Amino acid sequence: MTATLLDGKAFAAGIRARVATHVARLREDHGITPGLAVVLVGEDPASQVYVRSKGKQTVEAGMNSFEHRLDTGVSENDLLALVAQLNADPAVHGILVQLPLPAHVDAGLVIDAIDPAKDVDGFHVSNVGLLGTGQKAMVPCTPLGCLMLLRDHLGSLSGLEAVVLGRSNIVGKPMAQLLLGDSCTVTIAHSRTRDPQEVCRRADILVAAVGRPEMVTGDWVKPGATVIDVGINRIDAGDGKTRLVGDCAFDSCAEVAGAITPVPGGVGPMTIACLLANTTTACCRAHNLPEPA
Ligand code: NDP
């Protein structure tokens, strides 16, 4: 392997430590404790793992964690009523509705019912619009974490060719907006892109967010490029066991790239750290206090 490993686990620990310091100061100086409410509907095993991890790290940072677990059959109206209750609760500064929601619930309606000031996932249409127009927004946690890793490793991103593979509302599109905001020349590739390999090979920065295990191999990567692997895919490892892999074939990409994030231990830990940072930011904005740097 020739590429530098971008250690998201260590970087995220640093963010969490800074958040904890800020939270302690908010409590000591102002008597305020940031609070994050997480709403989980149903029994999806991956969602349960994420929610447990979010709750644990929220408490470890000194914040209040409010968990609301609802049955899969909960009605859309009951879910909207809970969101309205959390919007009105001054102890709650951030609200996260864990996706996916059951099919009978309109996820867009529920997300857009969240007070945009408490929308720490940054999925509300107001925050999407603010980000798209370069205004102060709540920025989605996963792309924000990717941007932090890129800035830390590369310094200025200005003028670099960036390719984002994937165009979802939660990763691909906001990632592209953030890279554009940092003056990259941005291309978004997706399932209808003609010759995605050729497109990716132009990239100084390649962000893979497709949900296809190890789809991107070394011959998709420009020599020296910085590769950010957002994918989290569980695959069969034989003997009845499974293992996590990204959207990039790590060994093959690491032979060509200048730097690369591992899976696990790359983007994943950054997502929760950014969620805690967003919640602290939301709390500071709610109380007209200086935001964390
Ligand atoms: P989605 O399924 O919502 O979007 C996948 C995107 O990839 C779509 O835009 C799709 O194109 C595109 N795509 C699919 N197949 C191909 C292909 N063969 N060639 C080119 N493009 C393709 O996924 P998400 O954005 O939600 O997640 C992507 C990955 O990131 C997943 O592995 C997910 O688990 C992971 N993830 C990780 C997080 C973390 O914290 N690290 C957080 C969120 C997600 P089209 O639009 O044309 O269908």
From TrEMBL:
GO terms for molecular function: methenyltetrahydrofolate cyclohydrolase activity; methylenetetrahydrofolate dehydrogenase (NADP+) activity. It holds the Pfam family THF_DHG_CYH_C. One of its GO terms (biological process) is methionine biosynthetic process. The keyword Endoplasmic reticulum does not apply. One of its GO terms (cellular component) is cytosol. Signal peptide: none annotated. Keywords: Amino-acid biosynthesis, Histidine biosynthesis, Hydrolase, Methionine biosynthesis, Multifunctional enzyme, NADP, One-carbon metabolism, Oxidoreductase, Purine biosynthesis. NCBIfam families: PRK14186.1, PRK14188.1. This is Bifunctional protein FolD. The lineage of its organism: Bacteria, Pseudomonadati, Pseudomonadota, Alphaproteobacteria, Rhodobacterales.
